[in-house]
Specification:
The chain is of the alpha/beta class and about 220 residues long. Helices cover about 45% and strands about 10% of the residues.
Length: about 220
């Protein structure tokens, strides 16, 4: 990985920490908090690892969930996955430098994240994971909740994932769900759409990733 790319990753992660979220949304990488510092550390480590591997593919999801990226700084990743790692892909885990943000709550698990990482591992496939809206949208006054991002939130997130794609030298974008697919379309990117694993979508998601991974190997 070139030094200039490393510097751009650092700048991107630091800047994320200073972006104010919309009302009823939460910035996991908040520069003003200790938890935000841990999440920035994790994200920087994750992006650096993916840059070194030159994946070239981004799976664009919807938005962070309260059991996942909100607490770890990495999309589709719960604290359980963060700490235990995905050994089949040689990524994540305390032994690789990832760290839990300070919390008195029990270590979280997230159904969607578990499905995503187990499916990627089963297919020996490691794309870059990122959300269409980078902050955690929640219901008013209920931090432990998820809601769909609004159109202005999605529009706010588009320049960020486009910038990250350029930094990470992404040449193939894949949408996970309708929100991501619509955001990609507005950006002029005709992307493959795979069913999001939530709301009973696991079989279609698994089949979609299997087909995508197989096509990339052929």
């Amino acid at each position: 990985m070139e030094r200039s790319q490393s510097s751009r990753i650092d700048e991107f992660v630091q800047r994320l920490g200073h972006i104010p979220p919309a009302p009823n949304a939460f910035n996991p990488w908040d520069a003003a908090t200790e938890a935000g510092a841990a999440c920035r550390h994790n994200l920087r480590l994750y992006l650096t690892d993916l840059a070194t591997r030159r994946t070239g593919i981004m799976l664009l999801g919807e938005a962070p969930g309260y059991q996942g990226c909100r607490r770890t700084g990495i999309p589709f990743t719960s604290e359980y996955l963060l700490l235990n790692g995905v050994d089949a892909l040689n990524i994540l885990g305390e032994s690789r430098g990832y760290q839990r943000a300070p919390s008195e709550e029990r270590i979280s698990k997230e159904p969607s994240g578990t499905i995503v990482w187990s499916t990627l591992a089963a297919n020996d496939f490691l794309p870059l994971l990122w959300p269409a809206y980078p902050f955690h949208p929640h219901k008013p006054g209920i931090d432990r909740s998820n809601r769909p991002p609004t159109r202005p939130e999605i529009e706010m997130g588009r320049p960020l994932w486009l910038e990250l794609g350029e930094i990470m030298q992404i040449d193939t974008y894949v949408a996970i769900g309708n929100v991501a697919h619509a955001s990609l379309a507005v950006a002029g990117i005709d992307a493959l759409k795979i069913r999001h694993p939530s709301q009973g979508g696991k079989p279609q998601f698994v089949a979609g990733i299997e087909a995508l991974a197989a096509s990339l190997r052929s």
